[in-house]
Amino acid sequence: MIDLNSSSPSLSISPSRQFLFDAIVVGAGIIGLAHAALLARQGKRVLVLEREQRAIGASVRNFGMIWPIGQPLGPMRDMAMRSRDLWKEILDESGTWYEAKGSLHLAYADDELEVLREFVDLAQEEPEGPAIVSPEEASRMSPPIRQEGLRGAMYSPSELCVDPRLTASSLTRHLSERWDVTFRFGMSVTDIRSGIVKVGSEVFEADEVFVCVGPTPGDLFPELLWDRGVKLCKLQMMRARPKSPNYRIGPHLCAGLTLLHYNNFEPCPSLSWVRDRFASELPEYLENHIHLLVSQHGDGALTIGDSHEYGRSFAPFSDDRIDQLILDYLDTFLPCEEFEIVQRWQGFYPKHPTESFLVESPFPGVTVVNVLSGIGMTLSFGLADHVLKSEVRA
Ligand SMILES: Cc1cc2nc3c(=O)[nH]c(=O)nc-3n(C[C@H](O)[C@H](O)[C@H](O)COP(=O)(O)OP(=O)(O)OC[C@H]3O[C@@H](n4cnc5c(N)ncnc54)[C@H](O)[C@@H]3O)c2cc1C
What we know:
disordered N terminus
């Protein structure tokens, strides 16, 4: 742990092993990889230090949704769209699988469709903005969805799908081979000061340090997270294998509960009707912060989730009851007999009630970057671009 009040760093550079780089990135999740990629493109010599033998955090446990539609209109959507464009560049450059699938918000109730209409009106000036589509059009885009009761949908063309299990390793390989980024795995950083990063007794030097350690920056800079009301969020997730090899959902899918989850819908006047209805019809879903997202990857597998539990530490067990609630709601718009669940896991990210990300410089030349919500895949490259261009780093 680092004493942020101390003015005289206690670290000294070991004469035994020194590595000279322009920048050190701590953490090889997507936020660290995005910083490494953009720094390398600027011609910087970059070292990435990762605690695990390979990335196993939120960046490989998510839906793989690059989801600008979930961002409030304005600067956050602009950052997400910039991020989406940078994602495309790096995915194309590295030959990593992705699809520009777009997304469908399905409405099975009139108040849900009204919220979607209101949102489309607000977003009409946006490049690649969303549009309302009829039930027939939605079913053409996504043949497996339930047609009974479908009132309409909002289609957004701006979303990408990546397979997070492939992307982290593919980008790591690409950055190493194409951009000469040095990766050291199994290196748990224990101390950081201006220009100096320590892993046990091993010391690394660079002009700049970027700390991108996901839900655990509290280990290195506890004041930055816990003292300002950040909690951890635990999510339950599932992967499913369709029974038919030809099963395709098309765009990313979600339905009514998702309207309550992303704050992009907050300005829509009808949202309060939807919230009140779900509070009386599906209170367990609101208590467990469950909403439904489904993505489909190149191998046909579906990623399904999720629930949200907030705290500082959690029981290490998944709750079957929550998985069942997730599947029950999923079945209201995507018949579950078409696939079987083959994996279940938990994921974690830091969550702040109002802030989307944190960029802080606890020491000159040291920048801590953390996404404080479940949107880090979407924001990653846009946030790194913002950090590297802006004055936020001292
Ligand atoms: C279940 C789930 C679903 C999600 N779905 C989506 C989605 O579809 N779209 C979206 O936009 N966002 C999604 N998110 C959010 C997104 O995945 C995260 O915001 C993002 O992955 C955070 O990336 P990161 O690099 O900050 O963290 P991480 O991926 O956790 O990476 C941090 C890395 O730092 C390393 N590290 C930690 N401490 C040290 C240390 N001391 N020394 C060295 N290395 C260290 C860790 O080992 C880890 O590899 C989801 C999150 C979860 C959990």
